[in-house]
User: Fold this.
Amino acid sequence: AQTVTQSQPEMSVQEAETVTLSCTYDTSESDYYLFWYKQPPSRQMILVIRQEAYKQQNATENRFSVNFQKAAKSFSLKISDSQLGDAAMYFCAYRRLQGAQKLVFGQGTRLTINP
Amino acid sequence: EAGVAQSPRYKIIEKRQSVAFWCNPISGHATLYWYQQILGQGPKLLIQFQNNGVVDDSQLPKDRFSAERLKGVDSTLKIQPAKLEDSAVYLCASSFQQNTRNTEAFFGQGTRLTVV
Assistant:
């Protein structure tokens, strides 16, 4: 079974600085998706960024980028120029490519932005 | 485009009572998911539907939880009887189609259940 681990329960960063959230996962499959979701107090999960395992190039979305290390099964999220609106719970998630495509989530990291 | 709609937003019940949650997915989305998110944890899949058929219910406590998706659109998740450990946020999500490379899941705002 696939597992996702986020070892940082909480992180904080000064506004405008850069922060990196860590995630490791375990799978025996060679092709899959990895995601970072943001969950603000409204509880709605919002997709931040997606990485396909067969792509070697790291995904980027504006101020958000990932460092995908397939051999190490590591998938970290870097947030540049942090803004107050980035404060939320962040979840790393894994999804198989074939078959039942449920998302397997990590435990989450609470990100605080200090003004 | 309307998002995934869930109701109610909040529910407080006593243990051993029953409760039902409703989800209306994005129009045209064939796949619907129910996740349970206990405080301080990531969401865990309870059940996944493809149209009105069940794809995965391996983690659904079937002695007390049930779900249906009539006509392949709206879905209802029921708990009967509720236990204290069922206190959680119940998230519904939908996606366009299973078994495609580029299928994003969209989430509703969830129902926060408190069992006292």
Summary: The longest strand of chain B covers residues 88-95. Residues 35 and 98 of chain B are 17 Å apart (CA to CA). DSSP finds no helices and eleven strands in chain B.
